[in-house]
Amino acid sequence: MSVAKQLQTVFSHPAVQEFGATLRRSLRMNEDFASIMDLEFAETPQAFADALKRFLRRFETLAGRKKLRRPSQESLEQLAALIDTYGVRLVRAALISHALVRGEGEVEESASTIEQEE
Asked: pTM to 2 decimals?
């Protein structure tokens, strides 16, 4: 499989999208930069699993307070399968990338809107 096809497969996978959206909510609502950093430095499957566990533990607190939907068990298992197939680096990059982009329905303020408020 070509590298381009691997990227498309991983970045468009529903499990990566679900966990990326969850990480995005945690980042935006709870300023959870620790989870981004934990995942960024995970180089092995074990380190990634540990970083994911810490992220989910942090998110559990936020989800309980704000009544947010948690990622599904199925997505967690699919994420693990993707790591086994494509490796930590590619899955990690896709997950963090999804967390850092504007989500569907999310309104982005333009520079002119921000300047008008000041």
From this structure: 0.84
